[in-house]
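User: Predict structure, ligand S-adenosylmethionine.
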Amino acid sequence: MKGTFYLVATPIGNLKDITLRALEILKEVSYIICEDTRQTKILLNHYQIKKPLISYNEYNKFVKTPQIIQLLKEGENLAFVSDAGTPIIADPGYYLVREAIKEGIKITPIPGPAAMIAGLIVSGLPSDRFVFEGFLPKREGRKRKRLLNLINEERTMIFYESPYRIMKTLNTFLEIFGDREIAVCRELTKKFEEVLRGKISEIIENLKKRLEKQKRVKGEIVLVLKGKEK
Ligand code: SAM
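Assistant: Predicted complex:
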């Protein structure tokens, strides 16, 4: 019998944000496939789970995928996690899941935290219809092109953004979308959790003042932007 491939969501900050079922599965499986073994070990040590780890990322996926599929075919149950949050969402694993499906392997989700959902629900912006845009391209030209395609989007838009690019991105948003409502959700579930809500121009002013005192905006960020008014 083939093994089951569990896609397990892990915390996005606070280590307590993990489901009982996720812990049960992590304890039961023969191997845990993860991105960065050091990162996953922090979680496993916290819950006193000892398991062999297999590292998997965008660079080794073509070598590791057949090995992982082989283990599943031999009947091993495996768990797949990312560094934080829900695997496959702006994280590695899509290719592996496709290959596992081709081989007729049973894949089971163990749902839990995802930064995009945490950001959306805390944003105060409409959550009945939304789109997840993931990370924007780093290059300014490509980024603008992507944003211009969203100019008539009426649904709430969710982006992942680096603290290094946040000011630049907010200025580009202001230029392309006008002064809409936005929420900058930073360090969710962590010690310095913060949600800045307001017009794009207000958030820019707020962050500018902050940057007079510190070098850069810190932490992990989800941006939630209001869609176009009907
Ligand atoms: N798969 C993960 C998920 O959906 O939760 C996301 C992985 S992606 C590589 C990492 C990005 O998610 C960060 O750059 C940031 O934009 C967002 N993120 C992750 N944890 C966060 C947190 N605690 N607070 C705010 N944003 C977070």
